Amino acid sequence: MTDTPGTTPGTTGTTPGTTGTPGTPEKSSPTPEVDPLTPVPLSLGTRWFLWIFSVIMLLTAGLAFIFKLIEFFSAFLSDESVRFGVVPLLTYLIVAAGYGCLFAWSYLRGHYKDVEAAKYRMLQMQDEIDAMEGSTSS
């Protein structure tokens, strides 16, 4: 076996099982062009992990919040010095309920189905603007 110039020592320049002149690169079939603006869908395992993780985190935060409410109301009923915090707590609860309603409304309207779409749409529009500016400046 002789080495062909321009190849790795110990090889002949052609891949076994292919035809071609030694030392010349093979023509490969064209690969489909991937659009960098198209979002890559998440795998089923990733989606399950995200859902399970989200539920665990929401349950943990919700249970901690409920525990703190119970602790506050038990202190409120037993001690006079804690009653000063009722107005700020109720204000906080009303604001939190309002944000919770806004989140539920936006989720039910489908605003979180494809959060990446706006980013890709903006990049595509910027490419179109750049193309128009390039064609008008020439």
Structural notes for this entry:
With 138 residues, the chain is mainly alpha-helical. 57% of the residues lie in helices and 0% in strands. It has three helices and no strands. The chain has helices at 44-78, 86-108, 117-137. The chain is elongated. It starts with 43 loop residues before the first helix and ends with a helix.
Features:
3 helices
Concise account of the structure shown:
It contains three helices and no strands.
What is the strand and helix layout of this fold?
Blueprint: H1 44-78, H2 86-108, H3 117-137
N- to C-terminal distance: 58 Å
Describe the main β-sheet briefly.
Answer: none
Chain-averaged pLDDT: 77
Look at the helices and sheets and give the structural class: mainly alpha
